[in-house]
Design a protein that fits this description.
The chain has 306 residues and is α/β, with parallel strands linked by helices. Helix content is 38%, strand content 25%. The strands form three sheets. Strands 9-10-11-8-12-13 form a six-stranded mixed beta sheet, with helices on one face. Strands 2-1-5-6-7 form a five-stranded parallel beta sheet, sandwiched between helices. Strands 3-4 form a two-stranded antiparallel sheet. The longest helix has 25 residues, at 278-302. The protein is globular. The termini are far apart.
């Protein structure tokens, strides 16, 4: 048997009560969420999966019943919503569930603008509810390795390139938003960044796009972030960081990312139980808003309004 996750060890074994949960959207992330909620984990013991909401008529998945959005919003039993739908729909769902008095966990990006995120956090505060944005990329083994490698080093310059197959912008947002996990890595490693320039090369007929973003650290060190998506491009990450004391080219194989969505759920449950300090919550919110603000600025650079 594996030892319990560090986050799990901090949770009491017998929860006094369970929070009723509904999962909205049952794509890749939603399916993993349902699996984690049904498996006997320490954080799942605090949660009771009531059903799922989907635009498709599915009836049930693995004995979990489909319920209507109206029922999910009005049910006294439902206290928590996991929003796992397409990014373009996140803002609307978050607003509906917060207004209905539910806690919300949402997959990134929570919104496609900084102002909307700020407004939703204010709404959550008014309602006395938790609004948590998932960032599983910060729970990956590669990120833990990078964090250790980067600490205390003086960056000279760096680059991060992400390649993948095509992604529909209408559903998942502009590439700076759909790729915000890469931006979050850079900000988490090197602190707040400012935008120097951004360009977008698109060939819609070929489903190809390449976004190139030049960023700067507070010490004026250059970082280049590139997202390249098109048919035949494999999902891959290439990075290169040059420091005064040497350089780091790509991440070695540091093992499989196990249970990253479950680790995120553990963080969410700790927030529900009031086990996060105000300071931690404020720092996380500041980082998320900074990244959303940068993504929005990049979008404006690449797509100036006519």
């Amino acid at each position: 048997m594996e030892p319990p996750l560090k986050e799990e060890a901090e949770m009491n074994v017998e929860p006094e009560r369970k929070f009723g949960v509904v999962v909205v959207g049952v794509g890749r992330a939603g399916s993993v969420r349902i699996r984690d909620l049904r498996d006997p984990h320490a954080s799942s013991a605090y949660l009771n999966l009531i059903g799922f909401v989907s635009r498709r008529e599915l009836g049930s998945i693995d004995e979990v019943q489909q319920i209507s959005l109206e029922d999910a919003l009005s049910s006294q039993e439902v206290e928590v919503a996991y929003i796992c739908s397409e990014s373009a729909s996140h803002e609307g769902y978050i607003r509906q569930f917060l207004n209905a008095g539910k806690h919300v966990l949402v997959e990134y990006p929570m919104t496609l603008s900084r102002a909307a995120a700020q407004e939703l956090w204010e709404l959550a505060e008014q309602k006395g509810k938790i609004l948590h944005e998932e960032h599983v990329e910060l729970l990956m083994e590669e990120f833990a390795f990078l964090k250790k490698e980067v600490v205390g080093k003086d960056l000279l310059k760096g680059s991060l390139l992400f390649t993948a197959g095509p992604l529909e912008e209408e559903r998942f947002g502009f590439p700076a938003f759909s790729g915000i996990s890469r931006l979050t890595w850079l900000v988490s490693l090197f602190g707040e960044l400012s935008l120097v320039s951004a360009t977008l090369e698109e060939r819609k007929e070929d489903q190809y796009m390449k976004m190139t973003v030049c960023l700067e650290t507070e010490n004026k060190r250059p970082l280049t972030w590139t997202e390249e998506k098109g048919p035949g491009l494999k999902r891959n990450r290439y990075l290169s960081f040059h420091f005064k004391s040497g350089s780091l080219e790509n991440v070695p194989n540091v093992g499989v990312n196990k249970n990253i969505f479950l680790k995120d759920q553990n963080i969410f449950v700790k927030k529900l139980l009031g086990q996060f300090s105000e300071k931690e919550l404020a720092a996380e919110k500041k980082r998320i808003l900074h990244c959303l603000g940068l993504a929005e600025e990049i979008q404006k650079h690449c797509r100036p309004k006519k």
